Amino acid sequence: MASIEDVxxxxxxxxxxxxxxxxxxxxxRKWVATRMLSEINLDDASIATGWSRFDDPAIRAQLVTADTxxxxxxxxxxxxxxxxxxxxxxxxxxxxxxxxxxxxxxxxILPGLIRQPISNTEITANPFPDAWKTAADLLARNAxxxxxxxxxxxxETHLHNTLLLSGFFLGCQYSxxxxxxxxxxxxxxxxxxxxxxxxxxxxxxxxxxxxxQIPRLSSRSGGIRLxxxxxxxxxxxxxxxxxxxxxxxxxxxRVTSGSAPAPAWLxxxxxxxxxxxxxxxxxxxxxxxxxxxxxxxxSAKGVGPHQSGRPREIARxxxxxxxxxxxEDRLKEVCATSTANIRARVMHSGLLEVxxxxxxxxxxxxxxxxxxxxxxxxxxxxxxLCLECLDLLDQEAAxxxxxxxxxxxxGAFWLTTTELDTGRFLYSEFLNSDEQSxxxxxxxxxxxxxxxxxxxxxxxxxxxxxxxxxxRLVRFMAAILIFExxxxxxxxxxxxxxxxxxxxxxxxxxMLDNLQLCAPEILERLTGYIPDGSRPLARRVLELAVKARNxxxxxxxxxxxxxxxxxxxxxxxxxxxxLVGTGIRQMTEVAAYYQWQKTGSSLWxxxxxxxxxxxxxxxxxxxxxxx
Length: 627
Fold this sequence. Notes:
Layout: H1 4-37, E1 40-41, E2 46-47, H2 57-66, H3 70-79, H4 82-91, H5 99-115, H6 117-124, H7 130-146, H8 153-170, H9 177-187, E3 205-206, E4 209-210, H10 233-246, H11 251-255, H12 264-300, E5 306-307, E6 310-311, H13 314-317, H14 325-335, H15 342-347, H16 354-366, H17 379-397, H18 417-424, H19 433-450, H20 452-466, H21 472-493, E7 499-502, E8 506-509, H22 520-527, H23 535-553, H24 562-599, H25 607-626
Antiparallel strand pairs: 1-2, 3-4, 5-6, 7-8
């Protein structure tokens, strides 16, 4: 009669080792992911040594077989098959085994299973890109443990880095560890390390790993034509820009059209890079357009725009539209927090994937045979999902007899005449020829060094404010797109928490409202470096810039006049100047403190000397990292 071990071994090896390979493959991927993650410092997201050795099958096999912990890891994976194994034992006439007893039987047969040639084949097979998902799950489990309670300021940085890295690996499609290392080191170059390059965090974690829903891969391509384009400047600009991008003449291509001639390969590489920005911006515009049409349609059906004095949430408006089941599914896919949470992530600057996807997109261009895996988080895919939804929404809304009066709700979001006057009469250094170039260099250096993921968007938005032309709205919305990310980063520099944990480890960025990141005490911290006489105005300008961001994000952009651009643009740019100023001030304070520590706590009367030394250190780092 066959022994228990015989039955277990035969069951695992049945159907060409189906169950065994399921467990062993998972074990190998977990081993690779664990070893790679062990070389990352979660405090600053730096890599201790290179990852290229994990691409070598012989080295990988040598390392795996020499690691005594591999047995325990494999037993853990085999125990996940306990139901199947117990069913085989019962069929063979044996009693069901508890996990402890099953573990003892499995340890007896494990060496023989690992010695099989097919086991070695699994070790030497390329574990990428599948191992990246395992890495994401391991980090999410780490974050789950960290988020058991609200973290301190230092520990929030640790948690934030963990969530960012989990998000990075979740979307990682590199087929070689060495290529992922190149991208990872590039993302870690800013002064804030990966927090200056990556914004997408994993929002739902558990003891099992990542619980986020992954966006669907869209099969859509090309631009969009909207029947409702004449309703507002926003809808027309969204439709026009989508067509321009499809024709290879998106906003980044237009603003760089005067560049010097370049070889064909460089033109193609630039085209790939530019499209990352263009699709990101277009996705943002499409989502704003979706909300505008939903609110306008609801208004046309007589649904009041407010409830208890506050604008109704669009999730409560959608069921009242009477739209088709297909459209409702598309709206849920893009807008619902219970799905991939695309709308909330994009509108709150939580899905800026340009820096994250840059290297991967170029690898796809240079070596498509080994880098052809589509990313669900790519700017193009997110954009096309939004355009799919907008296209169907436009078709159905066009039959709802929507008129201009159905945009009256936008007034509740938009700035009042008095608020616009604040921007109109606000002094701007950029209108002074003596100060303009110095300020531009100052802002560019800071943004490149600290938050490069927002720099190019701000540059395009700045052109929208200072420029003219039919695409002024498209350009200006680039600055609105990244405003919340820059604000949030600046708040974090001051040691203020930017993450909120709710429910069973649902983690999100805190919002820009007066209960969270725009609370009075936070605005006071951000403007504290400004002289007392000017501080109330500085706070008011920040508040109005946030209000403008909210208006754009909620689709409350109907007709933008030249005066609107001038006033709102001045408020936004002035706020960026203030955020950069307080960011540098905070970093200088920290550097001066460490300078004081280095010179010795017994030395008094050297405050100015320490401050100037700290200031020199900060500006040197800004210059170095901006290159």
